[in-house]
Amino acid sequence: CSLRVSLLTNMLSWYFCVCINPYQVQYGKYCGGSLVSPSWVLKAAHCGVKDNYISAGSTYSSRGTRYNVCAHFVPPGWEAPNKAHVMDFDYQLLLLETPVPVTNRSRPIAIGSEEDVQPGAMVQVTGWGHTSPENGYKQEILRRVLVPIMSDDQCRLAKHKFYKTITPQMFCAGYEHGSKDACQGDSGGPVVSPRGRLVGSVSFGIGCAAPRQPGVYADVAPARAWIRSVTGLPL
Ligand code: 4AZ
Q: Peptidase S1 domain: which residues (predicted)?
């Protein structure tokens, strides 16, 4: 019976997953990213520039199609993580050699604006990262979690000094009691507002899903002008 249940849930998750998050891509072994146009991917700056391809078009980590990266663009404010663990401007743009075809499985997401980033708004975070701090295995099937955006003031009260360094290029999201969060391997992945706009990119956090230790995300809305200037997209 449990086999049947798991077969059924696998089939259901397959059915639902095929079309969810067509904008999600994978970068390297441990990072995600988002298609913001057929030729441009937004990912985390801290994921580096080592890998020269992304995979897109599947919710299965091992089944995406590879697209070569021809250039990386890093915002002027980004500095590699320092001792204070500040990851300001933790986003980066990748230009693909050939555009990803626009289909049900791969398609860009529109970039959100400041109105999409309100405290209390439930945002969807997706990735192939760890499902608990103890489970160090990458997931094969894309997972998602819904978490509320926190005000910066509330985030500064969190239980670690790193949260005091929240900048306008970041926002926090999560519950006071924890339990739902992004984790290792989700970095660079999409954070999507209730109206389906890209508002963030997974950046960092102290541990995963612990009480008063929310996830920290790069805020994409303030990056619109920079994204427009690099990509020429009509934002
Ligand atoms: C990471 O290392 C990471 N709980 C991503 C998100 C969070 C922690 C770590 C947030 O990719």
A: 1-232
